[in-house]
Write a structure and sequence with these properties.
Blueprint: H1 2-16, H2 21-32, H3 36-55, H4 58-64, H5 66-92, H6 96-104, H7 108-120, H8 123-137, H9 142-169, H10 171-174, H11 177-203
Helix pairs in contact: 1-9, 2-3, 2-7, 2-9, 2-11, 3-7, 3-8, 3-9, 4-8, 5-11
Length: about 200
């Protein structure tokens, strides 16, 4: 029992921790202390659903459905490109007044919608959680798969809550104009880099 849980945590952490659209968004919400735990909780819940789908046979479905993959990919390209542009715009106009205005209009509904979009419109999420986790879980007996899944979900839970709470704790330093400008540029570049990699995978 312990070995599948531990391996699940290590593999899950290896797939979740590298900076991506989810991490970048949770970080930005933590800095603003704007429903950051809500964003983290949604990421964890979606990871649980997608990893469960992978462990119990969903990876083959996505691999076999080319149209589903194309729809998700183009949706991700459009969303990430547009959302990255918003971060660049915020970096250009960054000042104390614009930062205050931005935080005022970030409602819980907007945070929930954006977290769902950042997660579900990014095909890399399906590759990591459904396909890769699903493939690795095939090495375990049916009785061990639940423990492996538990390990991967624990990695997601520990990471996203730690990221959101640590960024909120450091908000007084991170939430300055110059630092925010740098973070916005970095997040924008990450969003555009992911969008470009998705586009490249389609035209290659």
């Amino acid at each position: 029992m312990f070995t599948p849980v531990l391996k699940g945590m290590v593999i899950g952490a290896g797939l979740i921790i590298p900076i991506g659209a989810q991490n970048a968004y949770v970080l930005s919400q933590g800095i603003k202390k704007n429903y950051h735990l809500t964003a983290a909780s949604i990421c964890i819940f979606l990871d649980f659903l997608l990893m469960s789908l992978g462990v119990y046979g969903g990876g083959a479905m996505i691999n076999a459905n080319e149209w589903l993959y194309l729809i998700i990919t183009w949706g991700g390209i459009i969303f990430l490109a547009g959302y990255g542009a918003i971060f660049f715009k915020n970096a250009i106009i960054a000042n104390a007044e614009s930062m205050q205005k931005e935080s005022q209009f970030s409602t819980r509904k907007k945070v929930i919608f954006t977290t769902l979009a950042v997660t579900l419109l990014n095909p890399h999420v399906y590759l990591d959680t459904v396909v890769i986790i699903g493939s690795i879980s095939g090495n375990y007996a049916e009785s061990e798969k639940a423990f492996f899944l538990l390990g991967t979900v624990l990695a997601s839970l520990l990471w996203f809550y730690s990221l959101s709470m640590a960024s909120a704790k450091m908000a007084p330093w991170l939430n300055t104009v110059n630092v925010q400008r740098g973070i916005n540029i970095t997040v924008g570049l990450i969003m555009w880099a992911i969008a470009f990699s998705l586009l490249s995978s389609l035209i290659a």
